[in-house]
């Protein structure tokens, strides 16, 4: 099984970090193909970054078809362009947020997502409401710019831990979801510190993608995710 | 007051039709600047078309800044890229769906949206749930490809009327919202036929944009719609 | 265009203050006809005041028909008798709360309403849930009796500002809605102090009423708002 | 225990019919004091009728204080002025719709309300959503003017039965709630015909009022239902 | 009228305490038959205790049929096995949580439930969401093991009062619901201390059961609560 | 990895059928341990059957601890006793309904569940609302007693297919979920007939259980699912 792990931002170090985690949790017969978008912003912080990242991600999904992949994982917690990708692809596509909250939902009745900047907080909250988990989840921002997660000296981890501690103390959180792909390498350590489930979207998405492929299931092409109709396209996208 | 009416698809005839309606309802001192995206699909039918239309629309929003505009209207009923545009712009930005359902909400307790293709139906239903109107609205598809609305001989109007009649008979609809920018020129006639409010998103959006400008209000830059952070951008978007 | 601004309480100074704001935001060709109910309580604070204010408001709506008006604005943030008025009138009727939250919804994803007394807080919260905005809005009371807003020496403004500051600090509010018609003259100043959108219901309602009239739309008479059936009425109402 | 059964419309024959049912289900030590509003419409069909009925009902609640009552029942399925009455009274006040849906909720997971005219359907649906039962209940109109229920030759019962049969066949209704005070005398017979619980609001409200009085509980005067503040009242209400 | 008050835990002292309250509020012609499950845990604290308590409770419901009862009350605030009991019985069955929140709903717009341990908090919150009251209620745990409520020297009452005070101060609670059958004897005193309605589930359930029996209504056997189908049963239950 | 597939009903042929499907989709290094409850009903049709099945299932979960298992799957679409099992176990526990709707949610925006008897329909609908999928899913009953699925000559498959066809025609379903463990062997064939995703809970649950174990995650023991407190147990359970 070949899973395409596509980072919709253009920072290759984030892709690499995610690929390490993905490979560590993948089944023995799963190959992780890590891809970084070649077009778009260096990080996705808010609606604008997300919107302009989509065409680059879709292009990557298209170009990688030659070599082939059995499912795709969009490696951003905002589930950037997830619906467009599902429409575009014939194979299953999963997002990090969707995978993580679904996974946490098997483990806890109430939990908190800790993301990076305030500007992403409501965006993620809206996603989670769409996924039906709104009544069970609180989203918190920890005031960490995404790329600071790439820099061990940045103090980002201390901020993240402080926010997790607030979630445990104030929200009654029974589990924690890490709300950024750049936090993927921290889950295991945080789990041992706080003794609650700490769910990372990258790892969760790998398992959901594997599950769908194993089950022989793919995106319904009836109605919402029907393949794009052929039509004139102006300009280069 | 200068309102930018930006069509996120690349079909200029749709822009022109919408501009005629927009100018007809605009206040005497409002100038409608009609713009057609130069990059993207000829019509927006489903998630993929919507996603790839956004960069072209954002480019237009940027380039038109030189001449200036006081608010922008995204001229597609899917509210394509609305949140990205709000983040990007300092002036108010309104969508057709949001404007139309808000307007209908002042006139009726329950109403139906009649859109084009089945693939757009749930997309619009999800939007309306986000706007808080889910419990009051039913969305219907009339099996009309968007560009058939540009062709009077296509039979599109008969299909649309049949679907409106089903909405009135089966949904208990107290009003009808036309769920595609391409239907904008039909509202007045349908209103006189069916004797219920028939709301067109283009006209509704013009009035909402004018309202926000008159009130001296613009998009909050606190949290969700904070201006994009400066960051490296790879490739051409 | 003639808009009837009907104050459902019987305090003429509140009507006058609202009329000044209404005229300031109205279009050049809009005439604001300010009317004060002649029957009912001096202010509307809670359910009882609201209920006994309605007949006086409806009488005014009836008597002003001779001179004519194109739409009516119910000038109380509780949207007192709004549905009865829609049923009674052939022209559009808008409320302050409905208009204000709709307007704020174009500008912010999450926002707070700051009203007067605690007894009005849940009443307004229930209204906002009916309008579908429950998940996006927090309502706060600032412990100000309505008529204190008429008295500059009352300390009301300091209380209001303190509550707005709590909304910004604690709720993550991206915008503020002023939850009483008596606060209408404060919006502009508060906007410049807090640098977020501050929405006043009076001004918002004027623009919504103008929008509906311009669009040639009026309340649906199908089902919920069908005109009252003729029937015997006992007593004087 | 003395329960005031107050009919907010001015048709005494409806009051009498309801009083018979109320006395039949009341406990041995409960006295039913039946009162008809002296001011307002002959029947309540839609928002306008409801609004103008409230002052007459409140006056009756006030005047009957001399003789005293331990709780009040508002004898209309629209729960006309219920919140105003709760604010006004120191004793518990219950509505027919609220009592009936709560009662049905102990007996069935999903049920249907069958009311009179289409114009009351959404009004009742909104009430039921406020009471939290929206997901469990479907409201249907049977096209019966309220006062036809007073006339055995009107064909009203046949229409009502036809609508109940549709509810059982199409909605999966496990129980039926009669959605008008004027249907109160029909519950027992319909129950034996259809072999499902048929809940009448008058009877249900008597038991809820008795329950609250027996429990020594009354309306909270904290926040929402705080007693009206003393203030100038213009005109006669 | 004979009401079976069945305690699904096996602590007879709790049954006795509840029976005293039940008899105090019951109508003169109501006989309270108090029964303690003979099989299961000594207290119900969380999902596991609840699940293993059900068969013992159902056995009691079955064995008591010989002597007969007109309705049953499940005497635990978790509404343990309520739906199974409704399916099993031909007479009405009511739960404490359902009865208490319904009762409080007639008295207050927003209220708080104060229960025992944190492990029961979300369980009750989920129940209340099912009953449609989620938007009106906050559930709080007071860190009291259930059986400490049987011991006056345990400090339980001080903890309970502290939590009620937090509910009043922080939640805007207009009424309090006691979230454990073991608190049943405290309602009257707490009501006089805090001057808000304090609702106890045992007393509330007695009145709801009496109401249903008086109304001649029983559980619908259509669909959800249809009587169990005859089928092989392995083992002893 | 060892997964315990525990059938909470006592029909061993259903366990065997499910085990075949489970083994077919399990990863190469996953061992499926199939277990049939020794105590309880032969099939689970409605609330009563479900409640009395739980102790037998919990006993099996306990006794199988000696040999050990890494996660448990409750093999009934009603997610019988799922929360009690999560509280009881230290390893992850997943249900069929939860797993299936989560899986379908990655593939379709709107889908339908087709279950057996009408008495299970609302039970499953309520589950799905708890899982947050209520707005996306319609549940249908096909009038098939569970054990008829064990008998190829019963006509059950024809009924099931007819109901699936109604779901596709009337609900706009983009995917189908099979709402009974006894349908597990039919998914693949139905998928090829109808060309939409057909999700079977048994297979879906195997992959979710594998995912959780691979990720090193288990049920949170904070709050809702905290391990049962030690306490006296009366009788044999």
Name the overall outline of chain A. globular
Beta-strand content bin of chain A: 15-25%
CATH fold call of the largest domain in chain A: Rossmann fold
Structural class of chain A: alpha/beta
Protein name (chains A, B, C, D, E, F): Aspartate/glutamate racemase family protein
Family (chains A, B, C, D, E, F): Belongs to the HyuE racemase family.
InterPro entries (chains A, B, C, D, E, F): Asp/Glu/hydantoin_racemase, Hydantoin_racemase-like, Iso_Racemase_Enz_sf
Q: Mind explaining what this structure looks like?
A:
The structure is a homohexamer of 237-residue chains. Chain A has a four-stranded parallel beta sheet with strand order 2-1-4-5, with helices on both faces. Chain A has a four-stranded parallel beta sheet with strand order 7-6-8-9, sandwiched between helices. In chain A, α7 (187-194) links the parallel β8 and β9 (198-200). Chain A has helices at residues 12-25, 47-63, 82-88, 96-105, 118-130, 156-170, 187-194, 201-214, and strands at 2-7, 31-36, 40-41, 71-74, 93-95, 111-115, 137-141, 176-178, 198-200, 233-234. Chain A has two domains: 2-95 and 203-225, 3-Layer(aba) Sandwich (Rossmann fold), CATH 3.40.50.12500; 98-200, Rossmann fold (3-Layer(aba) Sandwich). Chain A is globular, with a radius of gyration of 17 Å. By secondary structure, chain A is of the alpha/beta class. The first copy, chain A, has eight helices and ten strands. The model of chain A has no long low-confidence stretch (mean pLDDT 97). Chains in contact: A-B, A-C, A-E, A-F, B-C, B-D, B-F, C-D, C-E, D-E, D-F, E-F. At the B-C interface, α4 and α8 of B face α4 and α8 of C. Chains A, B, C, D, E, F: It comes from Rhizobium mayense. Chains A, B, C, D, E, F: Belongs to the HyuE racemase family. Chains A, B, C, D, E, F: This is Aspartate/glutamate racemase family protein. Chains A, B, C, D, E, F: It holds the Pfam family Asp_Glu_race. Chains A, B, C, D, E, F: InterPro entries: Asp/Glu/hydantoin_racemase (IPR015942), Hydantoin_racemase-like (IPR052186), Iso_Racemase_Enz_sf (IPR053714).
């Amino acid at each position: 099984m070949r899973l395409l792990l596509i980072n919709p931002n253009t920072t290759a170090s984030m892709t690499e970090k995610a690929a390490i985690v993905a490979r560590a949790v993948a089944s023995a017969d799963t190959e992780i193909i890590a891809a970084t978008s070649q077009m778009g912003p260096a990080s996705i912080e808010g609606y604008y970054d997300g919107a302009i990242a989509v065409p680059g991600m879709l292009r990557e999904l298209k170009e990688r078809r030659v070599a082939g992949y059995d499912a795709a994982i969009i490696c951003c917690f905002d589930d950037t362009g997830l619906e467009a990708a599902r429409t575009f692809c014939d194979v299953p596509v999963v997002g990090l947020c969707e995978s993580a909250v679904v996974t946490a939902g098997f483990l806890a009745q109430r939990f908190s997502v800790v993301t990076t900047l305030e500007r992403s907080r409501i965006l993620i909250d809206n996603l989670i409401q769409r996924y039906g988990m709104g009544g069970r989840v609180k989203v918190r921002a920890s005031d960490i710019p995404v790329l600071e997660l790439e820099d061990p000296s940045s103090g980002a981890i201390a901020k993240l831990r402080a926010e997790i501690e607030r979630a445990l103390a104030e929200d009654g959180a029974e589990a924690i979801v890490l709300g950024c792909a750049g936090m993927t390498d921290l889950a295991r350590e945080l789990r041992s510190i706080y003794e609650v489930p700490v769910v990372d979207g990258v790892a969760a998405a790998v398992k959901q993608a594997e599950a769908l492929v194993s089950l022989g299931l793919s995106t319904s092409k009836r109605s919402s995710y029907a393949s794009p109709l052929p039509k004139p396209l102006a300009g280069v996208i």
